[in-house]
TrEMBL record:
Gene3D superfamilies found in the cross-reference section: Vaccinia Virus protein VP39
One Pfam entry name: N6_N4_Mtase
Annotated keywords: Methyltransferase, Restriction system, S-adenosyl-L-methionine, Transferase
Origin species: Lacrimispora amygdalina
InterPro entries membership: DNA_methylase_N4/N6, DNA_methylase_N6_adenine_CS, N4/N6-MTase_EcoPI_Mod-like, SAM-dependent_MTases_sf
Keyword S-adenosyl-L-methionine: yes
An example Gene Ontology CC term for this record: cytoplasm
Protein name (record): Site-specific DNA-methyltransferase
SUPFAM superfamilies linked: S-adenosyl-L-methionine-dependent methyltransferases (SSF53335)
Boundaries of every DNA methylase N-4/N-6 domain copy: 12-321
One record GO biological process: DNA restriction-modification system
Single GO MF annotation: N-methyltransferase activity
Protein family according to the UniProt entry: Belongs to the N(4)/N(6)-methyltransferase family.
Length: 559
């Protein structure tokens, strides 16, 4: 996300994030062959998309660091909405208060604006407690100069019947006798020629001139004790609608329909539509750095907002791309990779890939190290981001200090441990920080940055494809993604049709060597197959094809 600061610092108008909730759960996706006649385990399996399991306070540190950057990205008139649930909502609000301000004047100042309660499901029969049916959305602004358009919602019959019970005899119109005072102190006013003082601690909301006008219009209602009230007519009130409040019960996730894409934490488009409409204008920039199913980007696109989405999960990128292409006539978009995390987008397999590629002797039972290499104890950092000092906390908490002490006593001045830390980029002072905190012991610490030190490292992730140009057509003869086949426990020979394994095919007829701009976007429906044969235009030059399998892993090649 820090890559965006150079170009977008102070330029993002709305940030909506639906980050991991620290739910202590893994989220999975059912992978199933298309149009398969094969029964049993060979036709489908569950693939873990991402884990939401964190150690100690690393989740809060993870969120804190990213929220700091988000504030820098926000424009002065920008808003941020943080979507969470009961697991960490209390702690996240404290962090948001610290970074954005706790909103001493929530209506006019910067910082905290609302805690929105969103009912996300119907009734639950949770054992031993009340049913948990809501999420929390915190709304903060960067300054007091924020954008906000109040939404007026349609009144229910139940609300109208309970509110407008009084009938005006002359016209038959139903109305609600509303207050004609407000908090504060003020002078008396004349009502029907009689001087009336407002109740203690209140003042009349209207000047004498306006009260006289309301009297002539028959807009003031008097109770049996002579107390004046302002008439709110049902027909006028209904036409205007009711101001949206901070409890949202009118938007439930769809369980069926075109909008459903099978992503475990997908949010409904109407929810994002409400937030985007309220806090942005056309052409404003909307950002979601936990993109997931892509709902934020899709709604922003439909509402003619510019948008930026980011996610470490390759399946999320693939799903979002597919949804955006369905509305591409509205506006275009570009897809970028920041750093080469190609082999590590599935965190479940990441350590195994690194261990195999580096030749690390794997430890299966150690709670400290992942293995040993050339006399060094190896610790592999999270592979979906650069390593930070916070990532070292788990290592420091579990180091064998008793062993260190024993080695130090036996051979003072000698190295007590050689530690090799493997990461995908890291903070500049990562090594120095660890050495300083463990200065009581002599350690030999080496940092291996795969992006820098091992850029030529080859990871085994094979896919075979046979793509040929025949006369005026580009034809995919065969495609065998070996990782997917392995998970399905299938051999090449068992595949009835290679297209059963494919999610999409993109073709760029004039590849510039850097950015792929596909003119062919073959994304079939759930039960349909890609064409696999494409007519080559006369203007074609350098051709590049991208084939994406059901795991959202892609093979890119020039033809």
């Amino acid at each position: 996300m820090s890559h965006l600061l150079k170009e977008y610092r102070g330029k993002v108008d709305l940030i909506y994030i639906d980050p991991p909730f620290d739910s202590k759960a893994d989220y999975k996706k059912q992978i199933k062959l298309k149009r398969s006649s094969i029964q049993g385990d060979m036709s489908s399996f569950e693939e873990k998309q991402y884990g939401d399991i964190w150690v100690n306070d690393e989740y809060l540190q993870f969120m804190y660091e990213r929220l700091i950057i988000m504030k820098e990205l926000l424009s002065d008139s920008g808003s941020i909405f943080l979507h969470c649930d009961w697991h960490k909502s209390a702690y996240l609000k404290i962090i948001m208060d610290e970074i954005f301000g706790n909103g001493g004047d929530a209506a006019n100042g910067p910082g905290y604006k609302n805690e929105i309660i969103w009912q996300r499901t119907g009734a639950h029969n949770d054992a031993g407690k009340y049913g948990v049916i809501h999420d929390t959305i915190y709304w903060y602004t960067k300054s007091s100069n924020y954008k906000f358009e109040m939404e007026m919602i349609e009144l229910t019959e139940e609300h109208k019947n309970s509110r407008f019970k009084t009938i005006e005899q002359e016209t038959g119109r139903r109305f609600y006798p509303g207050p004609i005072t407000a908090p504060g102190d003020g002078p008396s006013r004349l009502f029907r020629g009689k001087e009336l003082l407002p109740p203690a601690g209140r003042h009349w909301s209207y000047s004498q001139e306006n009260i006289d006008k309301l009297e002539k219009e028959n807009r003031i209602y008097y109770s049996s004790t002579g107390i004046p009230y302002l008439k709110e007519y049902e027909d006028e009130y209904t036409q205007q609608g009711r101001r949206l409040q901070s409890i949202w019960t009118d938007i439930l996730p769809s369980k069926t329909g075109k909008e459903i894409v099978g992503y475990p934490t997908q949010k409904p488009e109407k929810l994002l539509e409400r937030i985007i409409n309220a806090t942005t204008k056309e052409s404003d920039v909307v950002f979601d750095c936990f993109m997931g199913s892509g709902t934020t980007a899709v709604v922003a696109q439909k509402k003619n907002r510019r948008f930026i989405g980011a996610d470490i999960n390759l399946a999320a990128v693939q799903i979002t791309t597919k949804r955006l292409l369905e509305n591409e006539s509205i506006t275009g978009f570009e897809l970028y990779n920041v750093n080469n995390y190609d082999f590590f987008r599935n965190p479940v397999e990441a350590k195994g890939l690194i261990i195999d590629a580096l030749g690390i002797q794997k430890y299966d039972s150690s709670t400290v190290y992942d293995g040993e290499l050339d006399g060094y104890m190896v610790k592999i950092m999270p592979t979906n981001r650069i390593a930070t000092k916070a990532d070292l906390e788990e290592l420091k908490a579990n180091l064998p200090y008793k062993t260190f002490e024993k080695r130090k006593e036996e051979n003072p001045g000698a190295v007590v441990e050689r530690i090799k830390i493997v990461c995908m980029g890291h903070e500049a002072d990562l090594k120095a920080s660890l050495e300083q905190e463990l200065s009581a012991y002599k350690l030999d610490i080496e940092i291996v940055d795969i992006l820098r030190d091992k850029s030529d490292l080859q990871f085994k992730r094979e896919a075979d494809a046979n793509v040929v140009k025949e006369n005026s057509t580009l034809t995919v003869k065969e495609f065998y993604p070996m990782n997917l086949l392995q998970k399905l426990s299938m051999q090449k020979e068992s595949v009835e049709d290679w297209r059963q394994l494919v999610e999409s095919i993109f073709v760029d007829w004039n590849y510039d060597g850097e950015t792929m701009r596909p003119e062919v976007c073959d994304i079939p429906g759930k039960d349909d197959l890609v064409a696999g044969v494409y007519e080559i235009p006369d203007s074609a030059g350098r051709i590049k094809i991208k084939i994406t399998d059901l795991l959202s892993e892609s093979l890119e090649m020039e033809v």
